[in-house]
Design a protein that fits this description.
The protein is mainly β. The strands form nine sheets. Strands 15, 16, 17, 18, 19, 20, 21, 22, 23, 24, 25, 26 and 27 form a 13-stranded mixed sheet that branches. Strands 1, 4, 6, 7, 8, 10, 11, 13 and 14 form a nine-stranded antiparallel sheet that branches. Strand 18 (214-216) and strand 19 (222-224) form a beta hairpin.
Length: 567
């Protein structure tokens, strides 16, 4: 009998889960593929993304939406979340062995789950919703359809995001469980850099970071031109992997380094926790990424880096090069199938007194990473809490009118910090229309930063350095029907579509009613479209009065009213 074909008790489920998780192994035949097509990846586990490691597999869906998505194993739907951004429409299934699988960016759910979630959406009068069903509410069997693949949330194109998490909500590489991806292609090393770590160290007569000329070999391995070095040195590489059936540059599975045959560091990408994922910015050379758009993976453990990816390290991965020596540094980069690329760096130890020193930026403002730091200028304050940054540094801080220059975004930030304006010099009407924006791009476009007003103060909590400004928004959002007009008969229509937009502070919320009754309209921010499905069965009258109110982030709102007919 299938485990979930009988009524089960929560204590038994938890006992069974704890028993299975205690076995500390990854069952290879427990989870099925969530799609019934050949699995081709557009994104791999622990791949380096902006401010985070990728927590699952991005599975291609043949450049289209609507592929059937199946439960990978018996279990119960323990969580359903619908959000405009992030994972979009997502299902979480908890399994008897203690693991949870996640299926994200769905187009829609299976009929049973769709009915369950829509009932809650109408009760709460909200498109965005998060539910935690009871263990008996939505039991699913292995191979049962739970939804359709889509492109919802922050997805950049149609695909299925699939995760396996342990009972501590830590994502684990699904390939460890037997999910098979064809891969006979070795990883690629694109760039290599050497880092003199202290003022007495140098590489090729310089105390500055040095790019090494990479030399690909006929067997797929790499070397570099021989280097001269002295002192404490670290290395970093840019490396990616590619599976056989796709051209995407994905992440690697393991990196090991060796110095004169001795192991220096072992970086394993099989599991991490969401609490540590932002520390990716200390794993990569963040300044290099921000300026060159190349993610260099440091092959040493930098100061205050708490990542759990490091399985072993000797001297935190650094090497010590002595004068008048010859040494060999090697790097092994592996994918999950153990396809391996090797990098060999031959090092001649040579101490030089006259070396080029790196430039050190200094300013009147010094940030102590372990203390509270406050920057003040007239009506503006910036407050950094202890442990906001990894290291002490001089910060570039200046103010012109209501625009703050808060360094360049080349310093990794661990925690949020607070920017506050005193707006007591504005009259009430003008103050109500103010928000704080981060100025982005070459043209310094104002990008809304979540803003709170308290009496005469307006502030934002952010985690990005850069340029910020106080902006006024007095323009109402726009509303435009896409597939109907006033007085039209819509009897044969399945959907009602409306485009909403706001070119200033952005859309905050919307509310749609027909004949005074709330209706569900799903919001796709990428197409700026609201969509109502007449199959919801809410609209049953012949003459219908639609009213839509759209509000932006400072409170400007627009109202759209129209009449349509249905039989």
């Amino acid at each position: 009998m299938n485990f979930f074909s009988m009524r089960i008790s929560l204590p038994f489920f938890l006992f069974f889960s704890a028993f299975c998780m205690a076995q500390d192994y990854y069952p290879k035949d427990y989870f099925n593929n969530p799609l019934d097509v050949t699995l081709v990846l557009s994104g791999s586990f622990a791949e380096l993304r902006s401010n985070h490691f990728h927590s699952g597999l991005d599975i291609k869906t043949q450049q289209r939406e609507g592929l059937k998505v199946y439960a990978s194993a018996d279990g119960y739907v323990s969580r359903i979340k619908i959000s405009t951004y992030g994972y979009g429409k997502a299902i979480y299934i908890t399994h008897p062995n203690g693991y949870t699988t996640v299926y994200a960016h769905l187009q829609k759910f299976s009929p049973e789950i769709e009915a369950y979630i829509k009932k809650a959406q109408y009760e709460k009068e909200s498109f965005e919703i998060e539910l935690f069903p009871n263990i008996q509410d939505l039991i699913v069997e292995k191979g049962e359809q739970i939804g359709y693949s889509g492109n919802t949330g922050s997805s950049g194109g149609p695909h299925l995001h699939f995760e396996i998490r342990d009972n501590e909500e830590r994502p684990i590489n699904p390939l460890l469980f037997g999910i098979d991806i064809k891969d006979t292609t070795i990883p690629v090393i694109k760039n290599v850099y050497a880092y003199p770590i202290d003022e007495n160290s140098h590489v090729n007569k310089s105390n500055e970071k040095q790019k090494l000329r990479l030399i690909p070999l006929a067997n797929g391995n790499y070397t570099v031109e021989n280097i001269e070095a002295f002192g404490k040195i670290g290395f970093a590489i840019e490396s990616t992997d590619r599976q056989d059936l796709a051209y995407n540059n994905n992440g690697v599975y393991n990196i090991k380094t060796f110095f004169n045959g001795n192991s220096k560091i072992d970086i394993d990408f099989k599991r991490f926790s969401f609490d540590e994922t932002r520390h990716l910015n200390q794993f990569i050379d963040y300044e290099h990424y921000q300026t060159k758009k190349e993610r260099l993976q440091k092959l040493f453990i930098d100061k205050n880096n708490p990542l759990s990816l490091y399985q072993q390290s000797d001297n935190n991965g650094y090497i010590i090069v002595e004068d008048s020596t010859s040494s060999v540094y090697k790097v092994a980069v592996k994918d999950f199938q153990n396809n391996t690329s090797w990098l060999t760096i031959n090092i001649e130890g040579k101490k030089i007194d006259d070396i080029k020193q790196k430039d050190i930026f200094e300013s009147p403002y010094f940030i102590y990473a372990d203390k509270t730091n406050e920057l003040l200028h007239n009506n503006i304050s910036v407050e950094f809490y202890p442990d906001t940054f990894y290291n002490d540094f001089y910060i570039d801080f200046s103010v012109k009118n209501d625009t703050i220059s808060l360094h360049t975004d080349i310093i990794p930030v661990k925690k949020h910090f607070k920017i506050t304006y005193n707006i007591s010099n504005f009259n009430t009407t003008d103050a109500d229309k103010l928000y704080i924006a981060r100025l982005v791009g070459y043209k310094k476009y104002p990008w809304y930063s979540s803003t709170t007003k308290e009496k005469n103060l307006i502030y934002t909590i952010t985690d990005d350095l850069g340029t910020y400004a106080l902006i006024s928004d007095t323009i109402n959002p726009t509303i435009k029907p896409l597939n109907f007009s006033d007085g039209q008969w819509l009897s044969k229509y399945r959907y009602l579509k409306i485009k909403i937009d706001d070119g200033e502070s952005g859309i905050s919320n919307y509310r749609a009613t027909v004949n005074g009754k709330w209706i569900l309209m799903e919001y796709d921010y990428k197409t700026k479209t609201l969509t109502h499905d007449f199959n919801d069965g809410i609209i049953n009258e012949t003459k219908n009065n639609l009213k839509l109110i759209v509000t932006d982030n400072v409170g400007n709102n627009s109202t759209f009213e129209i009449t349509f007919y249905r039989k």
